[in-house]
């Protein structure tokens, strides 16, 4: 806040908004999900750390201490602490305790601007951090003592993450843009040292490494951008892992994330989690450089899912993981991969990417947003929840909530899209529809498409309703503004061209006399046009409005002149100060010094500068008629410029150069321009959204159009300072809330009052959702014949005959039948109900009035009777000549007091007894009872049929909803392709069998011919004649006479019999003359050889035709898709169909079905009585329950022997395996003994040996020497004995 300004404390309290809720999630940020316990998720939202309770959805917040953002987060292995690594100049690392959220330690000096990743080692004693540009510094911290252990430059490129090895505390791995680096903490004589080795990709293409997993044997598995996995051994790639036939492991980027029970778990941007056999990966052959394998387990999270990080539940032995979806969601996954594994659950959904549009309802606490993720969301910021989401084919670019005078329900949204389409969406509350159909609905609100039109060729950038709600203006990046008349259906009026893409549209306020539209263009052009009148527009061939009056303004930069003026004023101030100090000096000397200083000052003034291209225009608004304020970006930021339209409008808009006539400096905004501006409803507060993501709130004086009181301000920075430009800021209709949406994807709601005071003032906990104007169930039908009949003129005598038909009534019935299924809108229903209530009130009032009149009449009659009695008494005392006739008195008719007939008295009882004795009356009563019973039975059947019909309608609507998704799978086309391929294969196989038969026939013919020759000296000659190859010419059919045909046949036969031949069994070419039988050869054999040759040639021709047909079929098979591709596509389509079928079944199971149950059928007793609430009861057929219980006992009885057999077989198998293992281990033990001791030793004796190894070695040497000495003594004894014998013999 400006220190020089003085603002009362109470005023600042009124403008001080506090954070109410965060509706956004920066899902595109790396590793933006952390888990502190099994129910608390943590993620970064702008400059906040959000702690989200999974079950209650409550949020707690920790704000960045520096106020410039958060770079990375991580949790301690014990989950007793967590770390926030910030952004900014010399950012801090903050260690917090959990769950107290008390600041525990502060680490300083780890990097210059931003931290990109932090991680604890396995025991949590060391913290590793890596910084971003420009230093990329890797630092190891003794965080408990706030000291740096080791530090080193990690890389010269961006580093995404750093992780300690879970198996070796001395190893780390870092990865990032085009690199992966392996670190070792090595002890040296000077202390610990951090040594890093960069991974060498070699022949593999370099890739950005998002994720990796360290293996126990110091190998590392990393992901790639193309979806495969890389196994690193030290600094080189050992093998690249892919699927069979070189299919990628994942579609898109692949990231390994965990090693679980021998499975390497990976996820990809395709939304699939797969488990791979790590033992097979470790045993991969390195010669080929590629390992093809299929995953063991697979889990498809969902369609349109792009996983970017996963965290595991801290509960022991838990298979629950939480996944971050870059498309704006948080998932709960069970990775146990068992038959009972539940499907993935989407816990929360958010916008993905920057927010392109935000607007609030003018009558309720509702907010609508749109974003590039092709979705439109509606939020209840009072109840702090998301109401509904609708998805489209294109990205949303802008949104505007229609004012209440446009749509009585206040639920109409105008939304612009990237392809130039504008869609009108209506928000309604579906509970009323489901309540009318006697069903339930979980959704609090729904959006339905009311109308769509495409006025632009490029994206729609601005939407604005005219102040009276009669015209909608749409602006686009194609440089056009289109006008539509507002009604039940929006009709086009026309469009105009503007000099550049439209940035914003602003209608003149109600205080202005003229209704005009201010068009703000991105290039600095401002165009003002009068509001078009739909009635004045003549039908033309084009919607162009050339005659629409307009004025133009083109912003000319004056910031350099402003700076020059500021410098000049500063120089004048300094000059005055110096003159005051130098009053006692000489005038001449002072003048010379002043001239020199002026010359120096003039030299220091900057030159006049005009930016090229011009600065962008961010926002603007009307101040008074013909005057407006502009906020510029780029060079001209830091000021609000007050502008007006020039009277001279003859110059073309592109050549104009208009300067503002006034400006207002904005504190600390030279590099932080104002991107969006809004006012409170009382215009006492000016709210600004800044380029840095901060919010500024300026208090204004009432009626201050020139913004002279815009001096002091309150500022709050919650959006990301680098990429959280605040282009959308709005106030709620009651000014109690402030809503903001930035390019960082975060949406925040702020409240200007404490929660207790807010609830007491609102008296409600949720926003009012508009009622539907769509169709409602068929139970509600309004029939009106439009007759204005005076019922007072009717009498019973005018009752029409039964056979007489009323044409008007018949017409009304026809209309009612036609409109039987046309369900009135919610407004019509409310109007009908209101009229019914009014009619009932009038009837009650009329009844009370009639009863009062009747009571007055009864009192008056009784009073008259009393007066007559008194009069009669008086006459009795008078003379007879004085008597006069008593007037007739009115009586109270029995029909006027029908309640007296229901009073029990003796006369009524006697009359009832008389009627009861009449047999005809008894028969009538019996028939009446029977008819009542039949009526109840029929009513029961009708109700059951109605309930069944309602259930069928729900199921039909549900099936229609999924019908489009089923049709998009194109299962029938893929089945046709498979059938055509199978048919082609069958034909090809049949042709191959025919070819084989022909070849066998040819072999049989050759063998039979050789056998017919027998022993003959012309055998070789006849075989050559038989095998001679002849080029046969087909006989041509001539159109001549028979003789010509015979001649042609003879010529053809000659050609057949005489030709050159080649022999496969000879090396030289011989020429045979097969026209004449050689002398000595039998003519029958020669003719037989020629006939058999013809048969052989016929078979060869037939074989050639079959081969050609087979080749055609083979080519036809090749033209079709490959078999495995077809099977994979069909399998994927079948999986999608199964998923849709399962989803349909789940939806079907969630449909509520009403089942009438009698009291004797209910067996739900609590505390010896049936509870009033039966919502927890289960409706089940008792016979079916008994059958299921008996089935359980049968299955248990059947499976018990099988389990015993399986257990026995398993024990035998385990025993066999253990014997084999024991033999292997004994063999290995013997080999170790032989290599170490040179012989087999007893391990028990070895364990009893003393611990002094040297003593044992000396004792062993002693034994060896003793044995050697014993041998020598024996040899000497033998020699001496032999010597003695020889000596004796000699003697």
How would you sum up this structure, described in words?
33% of the residues lie in helices and 25% in strands. It starts with 8 loop residues before the first helix and ends with a helix. The longest helix is centred in the last third of the chain and has 56 residues, at 1182-1237. It has a five-stranded mixed β-sheet with strand order 18-19-20-21-25, with no helix packed on it. The protein is of the alpha+beta class. It is found in: Cytoplasm, Cytoskeleton, Flagellum axoneme. WD repeats lie at residues 453-486. Residues 1096-1150 form a coiled coil. Residues 70-286 form the EML-like first beta-propeller domain. Residues 588-611, 1036-1057 are annotated as: Disordered.
Relevant terms:
alpha+beta; five-stranded mixed beta sheet; 18 helices; 57 strands; disordered N terminus
Write a brief structural summary.
This protein is of the alpha+beta class.
Largest sheet: 5 strands, mixed
What proportion of the residues form beta strands (DSSP E)? Answer: 25-35%
What percent of residues adopt helix (DSSP H or I)? 25-40%
Our Rg estimate from Cα atoms comes to 49 Å
Distance between the termini: 138 Å
